[in-house]
Hints:
Layout: H1 21-42, H2 51-74, H3 80-103, H4 108-134
Helix pairs in contact: 1-2, 2-3, 3-4
Amino acid sequence: MERIQQPLYIVWQDKFVQDEPIIDEQHRGAIAIINSLHYFIQQGYGLKDLMPTVNVLKSYLNFHFKTEQGILHAMESPLLQQYRDEANKIIDEFDIQCRLGLREDDAQVLLVFLKDWWKTHLKLHKKITPYLHKWEGDYCRTN
């Protein structure tokens, strides 16, 4: 039996690299979760069945936003408040799109939103990445 290879929803590209290892790693992680969500949708799962994956993604995006906010805070970036506002708006919109997808039984609603978010997030990085490159210290310690 031959397996049909399903394409990834978002394919990682060199142009996504920000040259800040923790940010690039988190971006790859977010894309991996989005692609996993897409994979399961292609396997016939509905959004209701995929809520554990959706919740992991939402938590991961929050974690990523906090990482970038922490660096921007440490760098005393004038973009910090704008970034916070945009991150909060994204999470609110994520919730709205998720409820819409559940109500309409259409997981594609959330996937389309996530692809648009990714494009918008990369545009935002054109503004914030210079601050990420100036960062040299720890903004968050676990010990």
